[in-house]
Amino acid sequence: MCGIVAYIGPRDAAPILLEGLARLEYRGYDSAGIAVAAKGSAGLKVRKQKGRVADLAASVPARFKGGTGIGHTRWATHGEPSDANSHPHLDGAERFAVVHNGIIENADELRAKLQSEGVVFRSETDTEVLAHLVAAHAVDGAELEDAVRAALKRVVGTYGIAVLDAERPDRIVVARNGSPIVLGIGEKEMFAASDVAALVRYTRQVVHLDDGELATVRADGFSTFTQDARITAKEPSTVDWEEAEYDTAGHAHFLIKEITEQPAAVERTLSGRIDERFATAHLGGLNMDAREARAFRRVKILGCGSAYYAGEMGAQLVEELARIPAHAEPASEFRYRNPVIEADTLYIAVSQSGETYDTLAAVQEVKRKGGRVLGVVNTVGSAIARECDGGVYLHAGPEISVASTKAFVSTVVAFALIALHLGRVHDLSPADGARIAAGLKALPGQIREVLEQEKEIAALAAKYARHEGMMFVGRVRGWPVAREGAQKLKEISYVHAEAYPASELKHGPLALISPELPTVAIVPDDELLEKNLTTMGEIRARRGQVLMVGHTRPEAKFTEDVILVPRNEPELDPILLTVPLQLLAYHAAVALERDVDKPRNLAKSVTVE
Ligand code: G6P
């Protein structure tokens, strides 16, 4: 979603804000802007426009001086991307500047009220309301933080905000409610941002604000308080992600860098979690003893986008290894259908960012009804991680490209660990436990083997990317692989891709098959191999082309386009079958000259409904 960055200190703010915004651009990228204030000089300097951060940086004049500033990169929700709708937004007197992530739900009502009082609006955004509200409350010598508190009391909705006051450049006020704000502590300088990505170049000491909290940030420190002006105590924590992880490190795109990082990411997800002695997984963060783990009769997995598809693979693993009925559902649907929450169901929320609003809302709905929720989350200390009763951190490292790859694979590996653990408190034998543990340990090396085929996969991608659409089919274990493969292709290459269970093809979509619509068939060498070959035969009989991803080369009559992946244990094979589909989507997007890391209309963390 949108990104916020703020700086206060002895240096010029503008270059630091622009650098921070570039780091946040993966979150939203249709427009960007900055505002700075300097001691002793009247007025704010503001530059904002439609387009990328690089365009903004090019248009900021050299004399854009001031040691206090705020910046924003936007992903439009209220009003189209335009110069006027870009943040920061100002009040009528241009004394206050506000940047905002989230949605003000009563913006229309507040706008009408302010207009009736004579306020003139310059944009269509909900954020501009905040700038005018702060100005309206900055009367009778009120401090900036008091004006912001009073303004926020009138607001319904979600926000992470940073507010700059031309008359008080010794401070920035930030606030959080449903959209993250983190403070960065430097040497005689302070930072604030919506995401640590913007800060790691300057400091590793951070403070996460809680919902309902505000902070006054000065060059020499900060204070935090609630909406009712009660002071809160905060302990700084140290970010363990390296600055280098936020660079493409010589790769053409973050996406291919992150695909390539998967062996190391999986090693970190597994690190210290396999218990050889008892052929199980050791997951301290679950906060659950064996008796409690045994008591669950069902598992329900919730996530959005790729996190949901990873959850589908997770459900499959839990059912296979623990023989507990398990099901994944999009969190965005679940939260709105008044779900039945059962005491003997274990709920598991999946999120790379830990911020996806629909997933967070689903977690809150489960908790409100007394259910127990675990999180499978990448970002330590994120909103979803904090809301859950326990869980598993992926430790996959930061994922910057909008399309999820290494977090996807690490999530499925985390589910394999959860399933192994649940299996071993149920009826999974020590021998089967040891078999899965060995399979997990083999994964990093086997993923490397798949990555070595990049050149051949790129050639296939160039061949198939010419088509307007592609079908992806798989059965049972291969079905979520097909879904994620189709998702990856459509989100970054814009080639229409539809996933179907191979078993359902003949019940409808077979009508679409023609030489113009090729099919990617996921065909592991398992008990369904023959059935999958029959499906491929049906496609070939309709003159459809087939690209097969599997373990064995079929007779030439089925297809000659085959990507072979190493065999692991059947339960873990979906992980390896997914990797070539990531490379296929990546190279299709490159062949079509798409903006791989920043696909149109999408954002990395969707922190609004
Ligand atoms: C967005 C992204 C997807 C991602 C989904 C869930 O839609 O574009 O790539 O899978 O959010 O994100 P999360 O951070 O919750 O895993």
Automatic annotation (TrEMBL):
Domain SIS: 288-428, 460-599
InterPro entries: GATase_2_dom (IPR017932), GFAT (IPR005855), GFAT_N (IPR047084), GlmS/AgaS_SIS (IPR035466), GlmS/FrlB_SIS (IPR035490), Ntn_hydrolases_N (IPR029055), SIS_dom (IPR001347), SIS_dom_sf (IPR046348)
Annotated PANTHER family: GLUCOSAMINE--FRUCTOSE-6-PHOSPHATE AMINOTRANSFERASE, ISOMERIZING, GLUTAMINE--FRUCTOSE-6-PHOSPHATE TRANSAMINASE (ISOMERIZING)
Subcellular location: Cytoplasm
Annotated active site: C2, K604
Originating species: Streptacidiphilus monticola
Protein name (Swiss-Prot/TrEMBL): Glutamine--fructose-6-phosphate aminotransferase [isomerizing]
Subunit structure: Homodimer.
Reaction it catalyzes: D-fructose 6-phosphate + L-glutamine = D-glucosamine 6-phosphate + L-glutamate
Domain called Glutamine amidotransferase type-2: residue spans: 2-220
SUPFAM superfamilies linked to this entry: N-terminal nucleophile aminohydrolases (Ntn hydrolases) (SSF56235), SIS domain (SSF53697)
The enzyme's E.C. designation: 2.6.1.16
